[in-house]
Each structure stands twice: as structure tokens, then as C-alpha cells.
Amino acid sequence: MRFVHRTLALAAAATAAVLGLTATPAAAATMETGHVDALDVDYAVGALTLDIRSYSPANDDLSPAGTTLRLRSSSAITVPSGSAWSCLGAAGSTVYVAPQAENAGLIWAGWNTEDVPAAQGPVRMELVGVSSVPAGGRFALYTTNAFGSPTFRLNSNSAAGCPISIWPGNIGAGGHAHGNWAFSAPGTYTLSFRATAQGGAGVASPTVNYTFQIG
């Protein structure tokens, strides 16, 4: 993982762990390239948490508070034609996408439930809200299959048949995957997510705000 900036909070978190204290996730100022699990769901001592996992220089949990996930202008693509893509935007329009496949010049964002026991799964993921968006700003998270066809997992597009606030079919426990994180306009987005363990006692994480900077 390469960072534009990195705070000393990582060292503080490590020190707390050595002392046996409950360490809060560290925070990185801005992340714009490399592997990151933006929706990292952890379960411990009966509680569910939602944070960001980075992979370099070490596996670290980062707090979404004070952390910005930046998507460069070079991520711009054109929305394909066809009804399957209509909920991403009008055919021929521009969207900015952190891609499902790794691209060394862009952030490679995924989701992670590896620390959720099978007995607590699956995990219900909710897009609770989208705020502080630029004019015309929309967010969508989708995956593509071997034929390139999209399946939308979450979508803030208000057009008929497009909004998805709850991940269809939930996310299995013990998993790790990547998708396409799409934004319709440059600017700053605040996205709010919440995770709920569907098994066991059905515990939920707090609602967590994430900041994405596009462009």
C-alpha cells in the first residue's frame, strides 16, 4: 500500500496492543493506490465493527474517521450502452471507477468478512446514506462476471428500479472480494455504512461515515 500521507497513529496503536489496551484503529490521511478493504467487518467479544483494512507495510485496521480514499481522475470510464448498465448512468456519460481488477495506478478497494465467524454470518451490509456529494453525485458498487455483465450490490441512483440500500443476499462470513466502486462526478462524497451479523445475537456495527475524494 502506498500512502500520500501517513500519521503516527499506527505506532500508537501498536504500543497500545503491546500494553494490552484496547487499541482503536489508526488513521491515514489519504490513500489513493494499492490494496485496501474499504468495508472491513470484524467480530470480537460479541461486538461487530466496521473499518478499513490496509495491507502495506502491514495488515492494519484504519479508522474511516480522518481517512480519505481518493480516486484519481485517470479512473474515468464511459458508461457502456445496454439496459444492464442503465443504473450506472446514461450510456456515453463519464463515471469514475475504482476497478474490480487491480490497477497499480488506482486504489484497489474491496470488502472483508474474514474475521466474522461462520456462526455469526452472513453479514447484512447497508448503505445508510450518501451526503456531502457534488452536484449530480451518485455512488454505485457493482461486480462484473466473466462476460463483463454488471451486478449492482449498492446504488444511490434514484432512477426507477436503481436504488439499492441493502446488499442483496448479504455477504458470507469469512470472505474477501473486490468490486467496482463508481462515482458519477468529481468531488467529495460522504457515504455511511452499517454492518449487521445475521447469525448469533444479530449484533450490528455503529453507522460509520467514509470519505471519498474523486478527481
From TrEMBL:
Residues 1-28 form the signal peptide. It comes from the Bacteria. InterPro entries: Surface-anchored_actinobac (IPR022435). The keyword Signal applies. Keywords: Signal. This is Choice-of-anchor M domain-containing protein.
